[in-house]
Design goal:
The structure holds two protein chains of two kinds.
Chain A lengths: L2 E6 L5 H14 L4 H22 L6 E8 L3 E8 L13 H7 L3 H11 L2 E6 L5 E8 L5 H4 L2 H4 L11 E5 L5 H12 L11 H9 L3 E8 L4 E9 L5 E9 L8 H15 L4 E7 L4 H8 L3 E10 L15 E9 L5 E2 L8 H10 L3 E2 L15 E7 L4 E8 L4 H11 L7 E7 L5 H10 L3 E10 L2 E9 L13 H14 L1
Parallel strand pairs in A: 9-10, 13-14, 16-17
Antiparallel strand pairs in A: 1-2, 2-3, 3-5, 4-5, 6-7, 7-8, 8-9, 10-12, 11-12, 15-16, 17-19, 18-19
Helix pairs in contact in A: 1-2, 2-4, 7-8
Chain B lengths: L1 E5 L2 E5 L6 H10 L5 E5 L8 H12 L3 E5 L3 H10 L6 E3 L4
Parallel strand pairs in B: 2-3, 3-4, 4-5
Antiparallel strand pairs in B: 1-2
Classes of the chains: A alpha+beta, B alpha/beta.
Chain lengths: 482, 93
């Protein structure tokens, strides 16, 4: 959940803003050293905003604090006078000679945090993004070697019990993940007990654990709540190799879905890799519907030892399962994607009818776009909240601003309840974007059209899909790319 | 920030960040002193606005000594290549 501060451009806000950044950093898991560095970086940027962004005027600017288990990010947004940090190059001799330390501030920021991004959003202002990677201790460094290496075979008549995961189970889960997958599991948070515990304490996820009658943890499955919608990603699935083929995965998923419904989630989804079809088969077996194909979603290197020979970044399928049934929907579908999106909707159980806006409001001049940069996954998602006329210009500017990040792909989510989405889709297609698919209920519980632009060459043959719908999706996406 | 004067020496103690506000405060309280001693042992960090004020004081002919600045300060001036610009002492007396 994002934390927001709105501040006046007054020097008195600098101390409280940096104090908040420091305390917040500690709370999301940064070490004291990293939290201090983040605080100094925030101090430098906020001071610049206070001093230079609004000469002679009293205005406000915003700080957004956003964290997941591995990254803490502070976003500073302002709409003051134009500024480009690339032109404020630090010159040591000039600083010593003239005493102008302003360019030094940005050099300090770059030194203090792991990632710095400057996004020029045109008339929407500017964003400074400061991110720190959250360090934690790996399970291999915490657990005794014989525990993580345990491969004892159970009796045939061993009995199991499913329990809701508690923060105190973090060590058992990390041990189970490592014992089962070695280093090959892509979501590395699962190897860090502190991160698991923190996510559970913060209610960022919930899960089930299978224990034997002797108390050993042999299975785990979880739902990770999304930040901006009442949906969750199912994942972290693991069954000890000696306890497979006993129906544990099915029992865990059933328990999870039941819990998710009780928690009020409107849907759950899995992101299945397309390097093979194993995960996709499992999702299909539990009635998940392939709704979108995200090209180059994550680097191959995240699957240490498992996909070493895979030739390219991993593309993923979004497999979605509605928990609140779809009824009749009236989305604003772009003509080019109408039939395919309708097919996805129907697979999800929806009846698609034409939108019935009597007289849509004129398209606003300015778009509102929230950029979500997944540094570890080398992709970004731009969530379009207002489909203004400058969507394409803002997207292109963001791509230019993120050039140094070396993203593999960028996704744009357009709200299907906006009458302006078809026009924006046409503009983005002209700019080289292609379909990814439907992002069901992904933001504010609303359906979004996901477009994408990969920045790497991809071999279509290496993208393996399982379901009929996924096959059609792949044909469409690859066809557009070519 | 607290401070005391002793002849031509002003000694200031920082209990928190040495930032824009505290740097402005320091600039205001330095009057005719020719020596300024800054105890930074409790400071979390020293930002570039503070460095600018330190540079100004030195440019005005004030002898400035920083005592026990935080580790991040050393890293920062090293990164900026300013090690020789500021006089740093290990322990406040």
């Amino acid at each position: 959940m994002d934390q927001q501060l709105e501040l006046r451009n007054h020097a008195s806000v600098i101390g409280p803003a940096t104090d908040f950044a420091y305390r917040w950093g500690l709370n999301v898991g940064l070490s004291d050293d990293k939290a201090e560095r983040l605080a100094l970086a925030v101090d430098e940027i906020v001071t610049d905003v206070v001093l230079f962004a609004y000469p002679g005027a009293e205005e406000t600017f915003q700080l957004t604090f956003r964290a997941d288990l591995s990254t803490a990010e502070v976003i500073i947004r302002e709409q003051g006078v134009p500024f480009d940090p690339a032109e404020a190059t630090y010159d040591r001799d000039q600083t010593v000679e003239e005493g102008d330390f302003n360019p030094a501030g940005y050099a300090v920021v770059e030194h203090c945090v792991d990632e710095v991004q400057f996004l020029n959003k045109g008339t929407q202002g500017k964003e400074f993004r400061l991110a720190q990677h959250i360090e934690a201790e790996h399970i291999v460094d915490l657990a005794p070697a014989d525990v993580v290496a345990d491969t004892s075979v159970p009796d045939d008549d061993v009995s199991y019990r499913l329990v809701a995961v508690e923060p105190g189970d973090a060590m058992d889960i990390a041990t189970l993940m490592y014992r089962t997958y070695g280093h090959t599991y892509s979501k590395e948070d699962l190897y860090y007990p502190d991160r698991i515990e923190q996510a559970l304490r913060n209610d960022e996820k919930f899960g089930v654990l299978v224990r034997t009658e002797h108390g050993a943890a042999v299975g785990h499955f979880a739902v990770l709540r999304d930040d901006d919608s009442a949906i969750g990603e199912v994942g972290e699935a693991v069954v000890d190799i000696n306890h497979r083929r006993r129906g544990l995965m099915t029992r865990m998923l059933e328990a999870l879905v039941e819990r998710a419904e009780a928690e009020g989630l409107v849907g759950v989804y899995g992101t299945a890799v397309t390097a093979h079809e194993i995960s996709q088969r499992a999702n299909a077996r539990f009635d998940f519907v392939s709704a979108a194909l995200n090209l180059a979603y994550q680097p191959r290197e995240r699957f240490t030892g498992l996909l070493d020979d895979y030739p390219q970044p991993i593309s993923n399928l979004i497999d979605f399962k509605p928990l609140v049934p779809y009824d009749t929907v009236r989305p604003h579908l772009p003509d080019a994607y109408g039939p395919l999106l309708t097919a996805i909707y129907e697979e999800l159980g929806a009846t698609v009818e034409p939108p019935d806006d009597p007289a849509p409001a004129p398209r606003p001049d300015e778009a509102a776009i929230d950029a979500r940069i997944e540094y570890d996954f080398r992709h970004a998602v731009l969530v379009v909240e207002e489909v203004g006329r400058d969507v394409e210009a803002q997207v292109e500017q963001t791509i230019e601003d993120l050039e140094d990040t070396e993203l593999n792909a960028l996704y744009v989510d357009l709200p299907l309840d906006s009458p302006h989405t078809p026009a924006a889709t046409a503009e983005l297609r002209d700019a080289g974007f292609v379909l990814a698919g439907l992002a069901p209920r992904f933001h504010r519980e609303q359906d979004h059209l996901r477009l994408q632009r990969p920045f790497v060459d991809l071999d279509p043959e290496a993208i393996v899909v399982y379901s009929d719908l996924a096959y059609v999706l792949k044909e469409q996406v690859i066809g557009e790319l070519q | 920030m607290t401070y005391e004067r002793d002849g031509d020496t002003l000694t200031a103690h920082f209990q928190r960040d040495f930032n824009l506000l505290t740097a402005r405060h320091l600039r205001q309280i330095v009057q005719e002193e020719s020596h300024v001693r800054l105890d930074l042992s409790d400071a979390r960090f020293v930002d570039t606005e503070a460095l600018a004020v330190l540079w100004e004081l030195q440019d005005d002919g004030v002898d400035v000594t920083l005592y026990d600045p935080p580790e991040l300060f050393h890293e920062m001036i090293d990164e900026l290549g300013l090690e020789s610009v500021f006089d740093v002492a290990v322990a406040a007396s």
